[in-house]
Amino acid sequence: MAEPTGTRPFSPFEWMLAGRYLRARRRETFISIIAGFSFIGIMLGVATLIIVMAVMNGFRGELIGKILGVNGHMIVQPTDTPFTDFADVASRIAMVKGVKAAIPFVEGQVLASGASNSSGALVRGVRAQDLPSLPGMSSNIRQGTLDNFDTAGGVAIGTRLATALGLTIGDKITLVSPRGAVTPMGVTPRVKAYPINAIFEIGMSEYDSSFVFMPFSEAQLYFNQDDKATAVEIYLDDPEQTGALRSAIETAAGRPVLVTDWRERNMTFFSALEVERNMMFMILTLIVLVAALNIISGLTMLVKDKGHDIAILRTMGATRGAILRVFFITGAAIGTFGTLFGVILGTIVCWNVESIRQFVSWLTRTEIFSPELYFLSRLPAKMDGTEVTSIVLMALILSYLATIYPAWRAARLDPVEALRYE
To answer: Helices marked H in 71-181 — which ranges?
Structure first.
């Protein structure tokens, strides 16, 4: 006997029957509960993946923004002779297409002391004309001013360093450098006090607690650099173009130099972030996988419960393909709606993640996102369209794959065996 042709694939009849099986009657409550848990599991799994990935993207983006707001995208250092021609080198590099600014600086480690404490600090000497090219610092002045930075004779320090040392505007910070004056007895430490003219807050605790900005000429005198610079910082229009512009910058320097970019200087840090991000994705994917397995168990029980109905449908002319599609639609609906609501929930949380963090901190009376541990003063979240799409596709594929075996079992059910003991 030939197999009946039946209805066309995914006809209204199949959708109607699948929808009927999704609406449980009183004796099917347990099956409905399993389907509900599958829906909730997929929704929470997708939402959690979106939230965690968005927070990690935001965390990485904020760190890169903070780091590159103070440190250049590329650093040019001398290799054979001291950097006495830093001004000419900086001017030539600044003319390279794609370079936003080239800033010479003098840098050294010091011990900073205040009224109540001492702390290690990094002194960086910059020219007043280059301050607008350092938006991370110059655009975040909380107290004081950077006016007449070259001639005022003072320094700018971070908010956390000022708090740790018990200093404010007008107070003097004492800097002690081991690279002091050369005497017949050897090199003596250099100790000098500078008034605080400005206090900045970059928003990254590591910088706010360690950076001291000093006028360029004063830094040269303090570190015995005479007419030399430590290096030249380069800011690009696009930080991702460091590799493409390296050769042009080396040529424009016009002298032997060592060029390093922000990826090389922070390779270990960003590699660790990338590994953590990938591992979190893999671990949280297990939540969606477990929810998909719940779909298998729920559909298997539904098929067993509906064996009599399936047999009657088969004797009335329903094809095996139609039965398979009915149960596929039933399971796929759970995965599809679970994924959809997961995306909505994840998006809502990402848009309000900082408010949620503050509420939880207030509710638990604890610091949920400590700036001392995570370097940032706020919890960032940045959703990536490609990443969200991959999460949605992954959840849908797992959900659809989970429905295939129970649907196949339903299609293979022998109506004679199912009705034999009825």
So the answer is: 86-94, 135-138, 159-165
> What residue spans of 71-102 are helical by DSSP H?
86-94
What are the boundaries of each domain within the chain?
A: 12-64+269-419, 81-255
How many helices (H) and strands (E) in the chain?
16, 12
> Over the stretch 202-238, which tens digit does the pLDDT of each residue have?
877 778 888 999 999 999 888 888 888 988 988 888 8
Tokens 């090389």 identify what position? 264
> For residues 107 and 92, what is the distance between their CA atoms, to the nearest angstrom?
22
For 372-399, write each residue's pLDDT tens digit: 545 555 677 788 888 888 889 988 888 8
Could you give the CA distance from residue 248 to residue 66 in angstroms, rounded to a whole number? 26
The phi and psi torsions of 205 (rounded to 5 degrees) equal -60, -35
Inter-residue contact 146 to 197 (CB < 8 Å):
yes
pTM: 0.66
Pair type for strands 190-200 and 155-158: parallel
User: What is the rounded end-to-end Cα distance, in angstroms, of the chain?
Assistant: 24
